[in-house]
Specification:
single chain; 215 residues; alpha/beta; Rossmann fold; 2 domains; five-stranded parallel sheet
């Protein structure tokens, strides 16, 4: 079971495990499982696990809280309770050559019995400022010229971001560096993208502040 905010490597870790084991990797998304008719989700879940039992593989359930919700929640319908009970029975019946990895951004929503089915429970948090610096430093070393700004400065200006957002920032700079034929100083490119990043984040911060004021 992998838990933590989005964009911090849950899917990548699951894929790496499949590659290390040299077995097929399948991703099951909740929108492909949840049906609008009574019993439809349970039937789809059965088809998924019937397939899983046919071959050694790693199966990754994204947004697992959609099908593994706490059954004691009074706001949930009887249908989701049946889905969770069916899910638990299918997991218990799996052969040893099938590896199930689940991911959730909302671990507090998961049924307590679901937790017991997973032998490993890992938290993948967003990077700390130091981890973000190390991540940026690793990627900046791959450029042909030095960045001209310290990774501490870049990390501070980016603020609290996920690894996926940091990767997006780096790839944006790399694309612009290539399109400029490496004629634009890397420091200028980074400074421009940091300003654009700050401008993009500003409306979000203002919305959060306004929401806090209304509360």
């Amino acid at each position: 079971m992998l838990v933590g905010p989005p964009g911090n490597g849950k899917t990548s870790l699951a894929e790496a495990i499949a590659e290390t084991l040299a077995v097929p990797f399948f991703i099951i998304r909740y929108e492909a499982l949840i049906g609008s008719y009574l019993g439809e989700t349970t039937q789809r879940l059965k088809k998924v696990f019937d397939f899983i039992r046919t071959t050694p593989c790693v199966v990754f359930f994204d947004e697992f809280d959609a099908v593994g919700k706490e059954r004691g929640d009074l706001h949930e319908t009887g249908e989701i309770k049946r889905v969770v009970s069916s899910l638990l029975m299918h997991v218990d019946a799996l052969p040893g050559y099938a590896v199930i990895i689940a991911a959730s951004n909302h671990a507090e929503l998961l049924d307590r019995a679901v937790w017991r089915r997973f032998q490993l429970r890992l938290t993948l948090p967003a990077p700390t400022p130091k981890e973000l610096q190390d991540y940026l430093d690793k990627h900046f070393k791959q450029f042909d010229s030095p960045p001209g700004l310290s990774t501490a400065t870049v990390a501070k200006r980016l603020g609290p971001v996920s690894y996926a957002e940091a990767e997006e920032f780096i790839l944006d700079i790399r694309r612009r560096d290539i399109l400029s034929m490496h004629e634009k100083p890397l420091k200028t490119l980074i400074s421009e993208r940091l300003q654009a990043w700050s401008d993009r984040a500003q409306p979000s911060r203002q919305s959060q502040q306004a929401a806090g004021t209304h509360e």
